[in-house]
Amino acid sequence: MKQLLYILSFLLVSCSVKEPGADILSDSLPEIYPDYTFCTIPANIAPLRFMLAETAENKKIDDAVAVIECDGQKIIESSKSYKFLFNEDDWHMLLQSAKGKEIQVKVYTHKDSQWTLHKPFQIKVADEEIDSHLAYRLIPPGYDLWYQLGIYQRDLTSYKETAIAVNRLTDHNCMNCHSFNMQNPNTMMLHMRKDHGGTYIRKDGKIEKINGKVDEEIPNMVYPYWHPSGKYIAFSTNDTHQKFHMKDKNRIEVFDNKSNVFVYDVVNHQAITTPLLTDSIHFETFPTFSPDGKTLYYCSAPSKKMPDEYQDVHYSLCKISFDAEKGTFGTRIDTLYNATTQEKSVSFPRVSPDGKWLVFTLSNYGNFSIWHKDADLYIYNLATGEIKPLSAANSENVDSYHSWSSKGHWMVFSSRRDDGLYTRPYFTYIDAKGQSHKPFMLPQEDPSFYADFMMSYNIPELINGPVTATPEEFAEAALHLEGQNVKRK
Amino acid sequence: MMKNNVTFLNLILAFLVIIALHNFCAFDFMYKEQNSIFRFSSEYAVSYFNHPGGAIEYLANFIRQFYYYPWVGSIVTGILFWLTTTGVSILTKSRLPLFSITVGLLIAVLEVNEDYMMECSLALILCIWCTNAVLWLYNHSNPIITSILAFCLLVLLFYLLGFGYGDNANFSHIWTLSRYSNTFQEATKEAYYPWGIAVLAVLFSRLPFMRKCENWLSKAKKNVFIFYIPQIILSIVCCGLLYYKQYDANTAALKRLEVRRWHNQWNSIIAEPLPTWDFPVLVCYKTLALAKRGELSKYLMEFPHAGSNHLWIPYNGARYEADLLSDIYMAQGNIAMAQEMAFNAMGYYKNNINARLLLRLIETNLIYGADEVAQKYIHLLEDTWVYAEKATYYQSFIGHPERLQEDAYLNELRNCLTLSERLTKDDLEDMKGIMASNTSFIGARDYYGCFLLLCNMKEDFLKFVDEYCYEIHEDTSATLVPAYKDGLPKVFQEALLLFVAQTDWEKYGISAEIQQQYASFQKNLDAVGGNLRMLPRDCMKTYWFYSLRYAQKS
To answer: Is A417 left (phi over 0), alpha (psi -120 to 50) or beta?
Structure first.
């Protein structure tokens, strides 16, 4: 219905709208929301519909026109409601011809019988396209309760969102940590907590339920990462708690009283451990395999008395070798980034698919940087050891959980920069030099969508196609499948 | 003639329904106002009208926003009753008042239920009247036109009601009975009753027996009364039983207290009679009301307490607990926990939005200086009917933290932010931090001191008085903190009189009046031979009575 309205309004408008002549030339950029000025986008992204920000100045405007052009092709969109709802077909046509080029956006506003042309801005269209889908969890930023949450996927080339799993069908339990093997939507897993608790692995169209508790030392499976072979999943096992800050603007502190890392053998249902990753004097978490599967990266911090010493926990970036043939770990741990000496803390390491780069989140302390306003993204050159911030992508607010696209040119990350509380997915282009480009927020059909939306986008993961499983399939598995027990190797 | 009588009768009954509902259920409707939010904005309208079933929800939300005001819920339900009863009467050719009135009364009874959705009633009414329209057309027009119009009506009904269409069509609740106000519980099957009886009414009214009945009715006027009165009585009895079945005195009291809390009617909460004092949550409302008036430690013993859970309760995951605790923590100056509980409570509402809790979150975010988040919530409330004024007021603080000083309430709470950064620990430890940070804030001190007294923790109480009720100056002299600049509160003095030696009474400023009252208490106690139950009522409203009873119990 809504689509139909948009198409009808587009047809009506496109028949009559012409680019107005400018009476006044303004030196200032138009104040638009979301801020898409000078960002870099993939050619297959859905139209970046935007609106004029609700400023006092913009409220005086009685008409507005946006013109997008590249090499003589133009899209002209008029709006009295300050929203520029570009047609999807026109947009895609224009972007396909703009690959590797810049498109120019001009915004005209009409006030006091005069048209003002604001300073035009450019949007760079990268040569490389982005994976077609984004998977994420939608959850309110409530802290102990979740009445409605689910894991969803969004077709990035359009505005279509579909559910992968929703807790409405599973007695309103918690579900989290969806993870895909090398951005492949057909090999995935997710956890459910409390009612119907377990890890659900979907491979080759079949869902298997795993009982997360192995023994006292491995009481649960938490942060996952698939081995590229699909035979293993690295997990951390965490005794996680959260507390509110009485004064700090970070609101919440999530911390582990205990954590270890192990590898789960998907085929043999075995937990592979090493004393190097399960000692009690360190907190180990956030395991990540390298694309060749020979190295396991993770974060490690000397254990502290929690929560009293929560500000003294600094996670370093470490690695250990892993033999996928034998299913064994190496005997040496290398520290790539010593957080203790830097008084910083590393979380969420993620290696690019080509194995060149490792991006992680750096914050002042702790591991749950999702609540730390100082959290920023850093990139590590695995060949040279050079570390630099992804300055163009970072903001003054939380910039945290990130994942690579299957070809390594794009990265999605969650940020609270929009309003300071609700996380939104942002996409940044990573060029051959490991530089990030100005990111853009996930475009929506209605550009004012985020203003009213009371959910956070959690764990954004790029995938190279849609997940074909339905929420009913996961619900069926949750309600009826017997969990597979895991034994130690 | 009979039809006119029925219409008139339905009107009278509707009037009686309104009066009855207002007298017995006014708070139930005001309670339901919180279940949804209505915004006068195009985005909001589009979000409902862009899918089948959204329109009826939009209408219900529009009406429900006015439930904020007393009488509105009763009047709306009275109108729904009239529309239903009259609609079914027309459908049944006024042959079966038992059925038509029962359907109407069922709607009225169900509307009182906090989990029942008005959308169901509106859907039923629309279906009934559309059926009437089709039947009228059938009698007054040719079959082809009737069929076309009936088809159009069906399409319109599908758009308006949805009939369970799609994942987002929330009108599916009528068919699935899922509920949004508290979806952790299963819905009751009663929502189907009016539909079932309406269908039965139509079927019965078409039985040949009914024609004979009509002939009999037309023979004598008294036959009409003989026919109608028992049916109406039976209908009222059936629906009365249903109401009685879903009525619970504690829940009713809880709703009254909730509504009064939402409307800041603290004096009414204190005066509200409770069905039992054994349900600690209900007493928490009363102690909260005292705290809101700054008189918790003055009048704490006005109520018969049974322990510290009369001040606040542990959070066990219920909406009302989280909602109430948010207010209690705010009264204690614990902004972090007030915010957490507001979030938790809001998680129970559809789309995670509740207008009143948004106001709380605006307050906490303004206090923390998180203006962007506050702005988001203000934006959501600016388009509402009831909450727009408050939202506009808060808008003036955005970008101007210095203006918070002009708002005594917010400024006082901002001063409660602990001096040094720390994580929430437990309620008592949190209050210690707040007391140390804001010496002029009564809330944390009152709650802390009263908690210790209700737990009969003598040593801790004495420590609390020395550490948090007095300020030690450089010359080692001690004066009362600004919060108690006029002297220690009544209950504290009563406790100190028991806990400290007589030589220290002056040091703690125990007034002559309290000392006299204690003498009188002792005299009365002697007079009744130590039997606490025989003491005069005034004596029972003292800490001395509470501590003796506490000692007896333990």
So the answer is: alpha
**With an 8 Å Cβ cutoff, are B46 and A2 in contact?**
yes
């957080």: which residue's tokens? A339
More confident residue, A180 or B174: A180
For residue A216, which of A269, A258, A266, A176 has the smallest C-alpha distance?
A: A258
For A399, the enclosing helix (H) or strand (E) is strand A399-404
Residue A404 DSSP label: E
Question: Which of A44, A39, A30, A160 lies closest to A94, judged by CA?
Answer: A44
- Closest partner residue to B423 (CB to CB) among A244, A420, A421 is A244
- Alpha helices (H) along A373-487: 449-452, 471-480
Peptide bond into A219 cis (omega under 30): no
- Tell me if B425 and A243 make a contact (CB, 8 A cut-off): yes
Give the CB-side neighbour count of residue A223, counting CA atoms within 13 A. Answer: 25
Short-list B383, B351, B377, B345, CA closest to B363 = B377
Nearest chain B CA: its distance from A362 CA (Å)? 21
What angle separates helix B442-454 from helix B490-499, to the nearest 10 degrees? 40
Give the pLDDT band of residue A143 (cuts 50, 70, 90). Answer: low
CA distance A160 to chain B (A): 14
Is the distance from CB of A284 to CB of A276 less than 8 angstroms?
no
Mutate to test the interface with A, among B182, B423, B430, B437 (most CBs of A within 10 A): B423
Average pLDDT over residues A222-249: 93
Backbone torsions φ then ψ of B490, nearest 5 degrees: -55, -50
Q: What is the distance between the alpha carbons of residues A88 and A79, in angstroms, rounded to a whole number?
A: 16
Spatial separation of the C-alpha atoms in residues A140 and A137, rounded to whole Å: 10
Which chain B residues have a beta carbon less than 8 Å from that of A310? Answer: 423
Helix (H) or strand (E) holding A361: strand A357-363
- pLDDT one-digit tens code per residue, B360-411: 999 999 999 999 999 999 999 999 999 999 999 999 999 999 999 999 999 9
Radius of gyration of chain A (CA): 24
pLDDT at B170: 45
B336 vs A246: CB contact, 8 Å cut-off? Answer: yes
Residues in B closer than 8 angstroms to A455, CB to CB, are: 352
Q: What is the DSSP string of B417-486?
A: S-SS--B---HHHHHHHHHHH-TT-HHHHHHHHHHHHHTT-HHHHHHHHHHHSEEE-TTS-EEE-GGGTT
Return the SS3 of A320. strand
Q: Tell me what the pLDDT averaged over chain B comes to.
A: 88
**CB neighbours of A311 closer than 8 A, spacing ≥ 6?**
A364, A365, A366
pLDDT at B220: 75
| Residues of chain B with C-beta less than 8 angstroms from the C-beta of A307 | 423
Helix (H, G, I), strand (E, B) or coil at B75: helix
Enumerate helices (H) and strands (E) in chain A, giving the number of each.
5, 36
pLDDT digits (tens, 9 = 90+) for A259-272: 999 999 999 999 99
| Closest chain B residue to the Cα of A455, Cα to Cα | B352
Q: Looking at this protein, which amino acid is placed at residue A419?
A: D
State mean pLDDT over A103-121. 95
Report the b/e string of A126-150 with b at 16+ CB within 10 A: bebbbbbbbbbbbbbbbbebbbbbb
Please enumerate in sequence order all residues whose Cβ is within 8 A of that of B441, keeping only pairs 6 or more positions apart, or say none: B333, B412, B415, B416, B434, B435, B483
H or E stretch at B211: helix B208-219
**Average pLDDT over every residue of A64-80:** 92
Cα distance from N-terminal residue to C-terminal residue, chain A: 56
What is the per-residue pLDDT for B52?
82
Residues of B in contact with A143 (CB under 8 A): 340, 343-344
- In chain B, the residue whose alpha carbon lies closest to the alpha carbon of A83 is B43
Angle at A353 between CA A351 and CA A359, to 5 degrees: 25
